[in-house]
Amino acid sequence: MKLAVDRITKQYKNKIAVDRISFSLSEGVTGLLGANGAGKTTLLRMMAGILEPTGGEITADDIPVQTENYRALLGYLPQDFGYYPEFTARDFVRYVAALKGIEKKKAWKKTDELLELVGLSEVANKKIRTFSGGMKQRVGIAQALVNDPKILILDEPTAGLDPKERVRFRNLIAEVGKNTIVLFSTHIVSDVEHIASHLLMMRDGQIIYDGKWDESQGDLEKFYMEEFE
Amino acid sequence: MSNFGLLYQYELKKIMKNKLMIAMILVMLAVIVLEALAPGLTKGMEGVREEATAQKTMDGRLIDDALLQEMYPKLIEQGRVWNQDNLKYQGVAYIVKNLVSDREHLTEYTAEEMYRDREQRIASGMIQDGLTADEIAWWNETEREVATPITYRYYAGTLVLLQDLVGVLFVLLLIAALCLSTVFTVEHRQKTDQIVLSCKNGRKETYFAKFCAGISVMIGCAVLSTAILTLLILGLYGLDGMNAVVQLEVVESAYPFTMKEFLVRQLIVMLCAGILFSSFAMAVSELLKNSLAVMGIMVGIYLVGQLNLIPYTFRLGSQAKAMLPSNLINFWSLLEHRLIPLGGRYFTQYAIAPILYLVISGLLVAAGWAAYHRFQVTGR
After folding, report:
1. Among residues A121, B67, B310, B311, which one has the fewest Cβ atoms lying within 10 Å of its Cβ?
2. How many contacts, defined by CB atoms under 8 Å, are there between A and B?
3. CB B144: neighbour CB atoms within 10 A?
4. Which chain B residues are within 8 Å of A49, Cβ to Cβ?
C-alpha cells in the first residue's frame, strides 16, 4: 500500500500551519519529528480525515482521504485522547470496533486480545475514569489497533507512559509496522530512533527532512538537534 | 458493516449513563406522582370518594329542563354550598354555571336559554378571534355534532389525566433541553469526536444513531410517564367519563370530541412534540456547538409561549403560538377555533400541528447533519 501526501496545505486566516507538504509512505514505521507548534498535529489530523486541507490531496492507493473506504483502512490515536468516563475499557474498545464496522463477535474477540496485549485485561471492566494517564493511553492504543489498520497514525502516543510502558509500546509498534504504514509523531527522539525506518522532520509547517534512517547513520538525537539549529 | 444497531445501543447507553438523565427521570417520576396525588391531597381521599359516589348517581342523565328543575330547589346560594343532601348535583351545577352568562341567576335559566347562551358566546368568541365567514360556516356545520342537551358524565379522574399531561410535556421539554442537548456537544467537549469522525461509521451512521437514540429516549420517557400517570389516576380516582363530551369542561368549545378523543389528540401531540424537542435540542446544539445556549432557547420559547405577547389581530403569529406544543396540549386549546386552510379544505390545529412538528424535526435533522458533516477538528 502507498500513502501519498501531495502538496498538502492548511492555512488559518493569516497563518500557514502546513505548507505544501508532499511525501509518500509504505509499510513500516515512519517517525515524524518536530518541536511543539511545528504543524505535526495539523498534518496528522488532515491525514486522519478530520481536518479539511486548504489545498492538496491525500490518498491511500488512490483512495481519497475524505472517503469511507479510506477511513476503513485507518487507525488513529489523537494527541488529546478523549474517552467516555462512564465506559469501561472493554466497552470503549468494543464501541470503536462498532464505529469501524467490525462484526460484533469478531470485535469482542479482538477487543479481548488487544486489552491483553496492552496489559489491561485485568482491569477491562473498570471505568476508564478510574485509570491513570498511562492506562488511558493504552486504551487509546488498543482502540487504534482494533480494526487491524493498514494505516496507523499515532500522535504523541507515548505521552503519559512510564519508561517500561514506552519500551513495551515501541516493541508493539515495531511489530505492527511490519505489515502496516505507521506514522508516529513525537518530539522525543528516543521514541522512534530504534523502530523507525523512515524519518520525517517538520519545522514551521514544512518538511525539512524526508528520508531513510538506520542506526549506522549515527546518533539520531544529534542529527535532529543539528537539523533544528 | 454499518453496525447501525450496535451504534444505536451505544448511543442509548451514553445518554442513559448521564447522571443528569437519571436525575431528570427521577424528577419526572416525582412530578407525575405529585400531579396525580394533588386532587386527593387538596380534598382528602375520603372527600374525593364521597363526591365521586354521589356524582356518579347522575351519570348518563341529560342536562335538560327535567334535571334542572330537579336540581334548582336543592341548590344553596346558587350552588356555592354543598352538603350530603345536594352533593350529587355538584358536578351538574359546575357545568351549568359554565354554560350560563349570569351565575347569580343560575336557577332562573331554562335548558333552552342555557344552550342558546352557550351558542351565542361561541359565535361572538369566533368573531372576536377574527375567524372568517367561511371558518364560522365550517364550525357551524361541525358543531352540529355536539348533541344538546349534553349528557352528564362523572369525569373527575379523566380530567386529572388530561390536565396533568401538560406537566408531563414540560418535563419532557426539560429532559430534551438538559440531557439531549449534550448528545453531540459532549463529543466535542470530551474530545472523543476525533476518534469517532476518523472511523468508517463515524459520520453518517453515528449521526443517525445519535438522533434515533435521542428520539427513542424522549418517546420512552413520554410513554413511561403517561403510563405511570394513567395507572396512578386509575388507581386513585378511576377513569370514568372517557366518553363524555369535552364541553362538560370547556363549554365554549365547538370541537365535537369526547374526552377519549381529546386524550388521543393530546398523546399524538405529546409524541410528535417529543420528537420535535429532541430533534431541536440535538440539531441546534450541533449547529451552535453549545448545549447551554440550546437550554436557554428551549426554556425561553416555552416561557414566551405562556405569555400573551402576541395580539389576536396578528393572526399568523398568535396562531403559531397557539400551536406550540405546550399550548396545544392544554385543555384550553379547545377554545382555539382558528382553522388552517390547505388545498381548498380547512383543518383544525390538532390535525396540522403534529405533522408540522414532524416536518420541522426533519428539517432540523437535515440542518444538524450539514453541521456535523462539515465539522473540522481544529485548535485544542
Report:
1. B311
2. 90
3. 11
4. 197-198
Pairing label, strands A198-203, A28-34: parallel
**Residue B46, in any domain of the structure:** no
What residues in B contact A37, CB-CB < 8 Å? Answer: none
- Residue B377 and residue A49: Cβ atoms within 8 Å? no
- CB B328, CB B269: distance < 8 Å: yes
- Peptide bond connecting A85 to the previous residue in cis, omega within 30 degrees of 0: no
Element (H, E) at B83: none
B317: cell is: 403569529
B159 and B81 in a single domain? The answer is no
Cα of first residue to Cα of last residue in chain A, in angstroms, is 35
Count the domains in chain B: 2
From the CA of B204, how many Å to the nearest CA of chain A?
A: 10
In a domain, B344, yes or no: yes
A48·B198 Cβ contact <8 A: yes
- The per-residue pLDDT for range B34-64, each reduced to its tens digit, is 999 998 888 888 888 888 998 999 999 999 9
Report pLDDT digits (tens) over B103-129: 888 888 999 999 999 999 999 999 999
Q: Do B9 and B95 fall into the same domain?
A: no
CATH class of A1-73+152-229: alpha beta
How would you label B207-238 residue by residue, b for 16+ Cβ within 10 Å and e otherwise? bbbbbbbbbebbbebbeebbebbbebbeebbb
User: If you measure CA to CA, which chain B residue comes closest to A152?
Assistant: B198
Min CA distance, B197 vs chain A (Å)? 6
B53 within domain boundaries? no
Q: Any idea where the domains of chain A sit in the sequence? A: 1-73+152-229, 82-148
d(C-alpha A155, C-alpha B51), whole Å: 74
In chain B, which residue's Cα lies nearest the Cα of A66?
A: B198
In this prediction the ipTM stands at 0.93
CA dist., res. B13 & res. B4, Å (int): 14
Calpha distance B224→B232 (Å, rounded): 12
Tens-digit pLDDT profile for residues A74-108: 999 998 889 998 899 999 999 999 999 999 999 99
Question: Do residues B79 and B160 both lie within one domain?
Answer: no
Q: List Cα–Cα distances, B88 to A44, B50, B96, B114, in angstroms.
A: 80, 9, 14, 21
Domain that residue B122 falls in = 60-143
